[in-house]
Design a protein that fits this description.
By secondary structure, the protein is of the alpha/beta class. The protein folds into two domains: 13-231, no CATH class; 246-658, Alkaline Phosphatase, subunit A, CATH 3.40.720. It has 20 helices and 19 strands. Strands 2, 3, 4, 5, 8, 9, 10, 11, 12 and 19 form a ten-stranded mixed beta sheet that branches. A five-stranded antiparallel beta sheet has the order 14-15-16-17-18, with helices on one face. The longest helix has 32 residues, at 52-83. 50% of the residues are buried.
Length: 705
């Protein structure tokens, strides 16, 4: 029976249309976020080992994140409802536009949930700096996703939950009158207050619910972490991380970077500039650095042998060619990449710098005229070249290298039409064939050369020409791509060994970063372990060096093998001349930066957070917290590395000592001459044959199992 009293006298008034829309949309967003979190708990099933209380804590803390993000999302909607006149709101065209917009927003949330599921599976965490980087270059990313997943079917399927949610929201709102403007304004102010208070109180540590990095990330919200990464992309070290006085930073740095070839007394004040004197006689060897896409140490047979029981087929290795090359050179067995992106490897192997938090130096516009390995060799009369199979503008690689010592660049546009390619560029065999042709030309001009070669085939969607390596259906797409990439590398080295310049060339063959990010540790160490192999004249054959090393040690180690004396600004050291226990590794993961020395890892986090963990490098684990006095000193060393690099970079203290080397012009692109296309058939690399007796090379004969 209806009350005869007016609505304002009959007790609590039912919410009006505005409140129902605002809270209904927040409920829809929260539901999507909650379902995403539950789905991730089942995707990352190992987190259940942390116990039910930890999982419940992750769900509870997740709701706090979700409430704040839902408030962010609904704030524009609440402001619109507060300002729109009631008559305009009821206007039929406005109603159609309004509900269509809400439908698109709900569909976008559903799509975002699927994207986050895929991102978490591939990169082991919520949206982070990698997601920010990917948004800058949509061509490669969108094409890669389209080639790797049934995108059309997913987009169509998402229409169903979005339509259901929109219909439910319309049903809740149906028949409810729009509140007066004062009530709608009060509602908007309430949402604004929630956003302001939540944003002020928000902390990256909100998600720290367990000693498990993966569970902590599950507890967070992907949009929350994305905007945190976006905000910190170009921020300076000071104000975000723990710090030390500037004089203490450089005092520590001089001690940390000192080595046999560079005593502490040789350092200039408030800088890393020092004189490096190599005892060996100088040799004008060519230098070829090959960055193998996603070649983590776990994939390399000579470092981590596999068995048939592990699903790798009857063979014990996916990399017979690399394994054979390791018998011809010196292999670093405890080397780590500085990050989980290719641009971090380019940054480290050219500048020898630690990975500054946020965006890589490769992407920063002020990175020009830096002290780099190619710039230093160019000063010594070397020709310098970058050979890549994709677009050089991706991640700013071409622009960075052209401004920092590389004279010429080969990129995807320089290969003939019809060359086999994926979203990331042409196949490895085409890249290596073109690199050989370019090196032949440089050698013919009588000057030593430096070449940086970047492969692409070991990357999702894991497609490659099958003329030489047939896809094994018993293996994963990743494993098949590793077999192909290894074959292409072996073919390149066999062909190089027939060139007259081979005997005067130092090769550095290494992974740019690990294949994937996994593990519960704050810094998932196994995901950063990479092979670094030196092959060439004067390099010990079959030697395995267990000294802890980082990809930023490559430039000074190369110069040590060349026997060059030089003025250095590198933060790396010649790892082949270090005592076994004197090595270090530096790396970044999401917003954390880390330093490993001995059996400890110091981690610097946002808002001045610091932690030290005991490490078992053999097991690639750094998980147990360490509160010993020695841990404090390691934290200070980590601060010295990262704050010192940030101070010098922002203050112009990392430039080439010789001004004429700071060239800012665009690099020269090489025309696509003398290169047949890779399609059917691909570029022909002749089968292995016995090399000339003067250059005996064994790089294996198979493609792995």
């Amino acid at each position: 029976m209806e009350s005869p009293l007016p609505a304002r006298m009959s007790g609590a008034r039912a919410p009006g249309a505005g409140a129902r829309i605002v809270f209904g949309f927040m409920a829809a967003a929260g539901g999507v976020f909650l379902l995403t979190r539950v789905a991730l708990l089942f995707q990352q099933r190992q987190v259940w080992h942390d116990g039910p209380l930890a999982v419940l804590a992750a769900l509870a803390m997740g709701e706090v994140h979700d409430l704040l993000v839902a408030a962010w999302l609904v704030l524009p909607l609440s402001l619109y409802l507060a300002l729109v006149p009631a008559r305009l709101f009821r206007w039929r065209p406005q109603q159609a536009f309004f509900w269509a917009g809400l439908g698109v927003a709900i569909y976008g949330l559903c799509f975002l949930a699927v994207v986050e599921w895929v991102f978490f599976a591939e990169l082991g965490g919520r949206f982070n700096f990698v997601a920010v980087d990917y948004l800058m270059y949509p061509t490669e990313v969108v094409t890669n996703v389209w080639e790797s997943y049934p995108v059309a079917w997913v987009l169509a399927a998402l229409l169903v939950p979005a339509a259901i949610a929109l219909a439910a929201l319309r049903r809740v709102v149906a028949g409810a009158p729009l509140e007066c403007r004062r009530t709608r304004a009060a509602l908007a102010l309430g949402v604004l207050a929630l956003v302001a208070l939540g944003t002020w109180a928000a902390s990256p540590e909100w998600g720290d619910v367990a000693a498990d990095r993966v569970l902590d990330d599950v507890a967070r919200n992907g949009l929350f972490t994305f905007f945190g990464a976006l905000r910190g992309s170009y921020a300076s070290f000071d104000g975000l991380y723990a710090t030390l006085p500037e004089d203490e930073v450089f005092r520590r740095l001089h001690g940390l970077l000192a080595e046999t070839a560079a005593a502490p007394a040789s350092f200039a004040p408030a800088t890393t500039l020092r004189r490096v004197n190599n005892a060996a006689p100088p040799r004008r060897l060519n230098v070829v650095v090959v960055l193998e896409e996603s070649l983590g140490a776990e994939l390399v047979g000579t470092l981590h042998p596999r068995t048939a029981a592990e699903g790798r087929g009857p063979e014990r290795t996916l990399t017979p060619n690399f394994d054979a090359l390791a018998r011809r050179g010196t292999l670093l067995t405890h080397a780590y990449s500085t990050g989980n992106r290719t641009i971090r490897a380019i940054e480290a192997t050219t500048t020898g710098l630690p990975p500054l938090p946020g965006v890589s130096l490769v992407r920063r516009p002020q990175s020009r005229g830096l002290f780099t390995l190619p710039a230093l060799l160019r000063e010594q009369g070397y020709e310098t070249l970058f050979v890549y199979g994709g677009r050089a503008l991706f991640d700013g690689m071409g622009g960075y290298l052209g401004r920092n010592g590389v004279e010429r660049i080969v990129e995807q546009a320089d290969y003939p039409p019809g060359t086999f390619a994926t979203a990331w560029g042409v196949a490895d065999e085409a890249i290596f064939a073109r690199a050989l042709a370019e090196m032949d030309g440089m050698a013919a001009r009588g000057r030593p050369f430096y070449s940086l070669v970047l492969s692409v085939s070991n990357h999702r969607p894991f497609q490659f020409p099958e003329d030489h390596v047939r896809r094994d259906p018993a293996l994963s797409g990743r494993d098949n791509a590793v077999r192909y990439a290894d074959w292409a590398l072996g073919a390149f080295m066999r062909e190089a060994s027939r060139r007259p310049w081979y005997g005067a060339t130092l090769f550095v063959l290494m992974g740019d970063h690990g294949a994937r990010v996994y593990g519960s540790a704050r810094i998932p160490l196994a995901s950063y372990e990479v092979p670094i192999l030196f092959v060439g004249p004067g390099v010990a054959a079959g030697e395995r060096v267990a000294t802890l090393a980082s990809s930023l040690d490559v430039p000074p180690t190369v110069l040590g093998l060349l026997g060059l004396d030089y003025e250095s600004r590198f933060f790396g050291r010649d790892v082949l001349r270090l005592p076994a226990g004197a090595g270090r590794a530096l790396m970044t993961h999401n917003s954390d930066v880390a330093l490993i020395e001995g059996n400890r890892m110091a981690v610097l986090g946002l808002q001045g957070a610091t932690k030290v963990f005991d490490c078992d490098l053999a097991a690639a684990k750094c998980e147990r917290p360490d509160a010993s006095p020695a841990a404090v000193g390691l934290i200070d060393d980590a601060i010295a590395y990262y704050r010192g690099a940030d101070l010098l970079y922002r203050g112009g203290g990392l430039q080439m000592p010789t001004a004429r080397l700071a060239r800012t012009g665009a690099p020269t692109h090489v025309p696509p001459a003398h290169m047949p296309p890779v399609h059917a058939p691909p570029v022909h690399v002749p089968p292995p044959r016995v090399p000339p007796p003067r250059v005996p090379v064994d790089v294996g004969t198979g493609a792995g199992g």
